[in-house]
Design brief:
Helices cover 41% and strands 26% of the residues. It has 284 residues and is α/β, with parallel strands linked by helices.
Length: 284
């Protein structure tokens, strides 16, 4: 007599599980035929815009590969890519609120951030440094004692800078800005002695401005910044779909083409970055 109630319960659970599996980001991408990607327009060479206003950069190219790979995994003959411009301040909220399916810039993986969003495999490894004017005589973090240093508000770089200054008892005045161009302009106008940001984005900005001879970076980094792509939390299958594409790029060596296209002029990958690519070439 208990078979019918048990059968009904089992079928109900099966239908509920099936419905749950068909919700979420992957099903939304499948049903709409569109993937929504977020980017930041002032994080060259990782994420910026070209003369036509189209997103470009190392992170952007990786996300384009992810879009193609996810579309193939879903069996879609065509997947439209929709790009949404974000800021450093609103990028994580845009992901957690599901305004974008993936955020493609220079977000650093931290445990506190992982409470609200999820992360892809590591896409790059950078370090926090300080840009100063050539001839300033500043070479180490300790040289910033009594100086003014700008940093983008709300970033891991700001936190790492403040912690490092405190750790080494360096009494520097920290001024916060909202964007990289704003920080660079303060150094250019001599309103601050340094601008703290990720080393590669600083070098990329100088290359773009063709002004590398007028500036220098500190000889030491004060933090390690593992970059990841941000996606909504609780999306296990979607995270696997994203990571499957990245792992293939790392495993096959195709990542070298993307690196050379955007970062090759800055020199070969560091030993740490090469090891990161190698370790994350996870097999199917």
């Amino acid at each position: 007599m208990l078979l019918r109630p048990l059968l009904v319960c089992a079928l109900s659970c099966a239908f509920a599980a099936s419905a749950a599996a068909q919700t979420g980001t992957l099903e939304k991408i499948r049903s709409t035929g569109t993937i929504t990607l977020g980017y930041i327009n002032d994080a060259a060479p990782f994420s910026s815009v070209d003369a036509k206003g189209e997103p470009q950069g190392y992170s952007v190219d990786l996300c384009r590969e992810i879009a193609r790979g996810v579309g193939a995994q879903l069996g879609l003959s065509k997947l439209e890519t929709r790009w949404v411009a974000l800021t450093i301040q609103n990028r994580l909220e845009a992901v957690s609120a599901r305004k974008v399916d993936l955020e493609c810039s220079t977000t650093t993986w931290t445990l506190s951030r992982q409470r609200d969003v999820d992360f892809s495999l590591i896409t790059f490894v950078d370090g926090g440094s300080v840009l100063t004017r050539a001839g300033s005589g500043l070479g180490r973090l300790a040289d910033l004692n009594g100086k003014r240093v700008a940093v983008i508000k709300g970033t891991t770089t700001e936190q790492a800078l403040r912690e490092s200054l405190a750790r080494y008892s360096v009494n520097a005045q920290v001024l916060t800005v909202n964007t990289r161009p704003e920080g660079l302009k303060l150094v250019e106008d001599a309103k601050v002695e340094g601008f703290a940001a990720d080393r590669t984005t600083l070098v990329g900005a100088l290359v773009a401005k063709q002004a590398s001879g007028a500036y220098r970076l500190l000889d030491e980094d004060f933090s390690i910044e593992p970059y990841v792509f941000t996606l909504p939390s609780g999306e296990h299958e979607y995270r696997i779909a994203v990571n499957r594409v990245l792992a293939r790029l790392f495993r096959s060596g195709e990542i070298a083409k993307v690196y050379d296209r955007w970062l090759g002029r800055l020199g070969p990958p560091s030993a740490l970055l090469s090891a990161t690519y190698f370790v994350q070439g996870i097999s199917e």
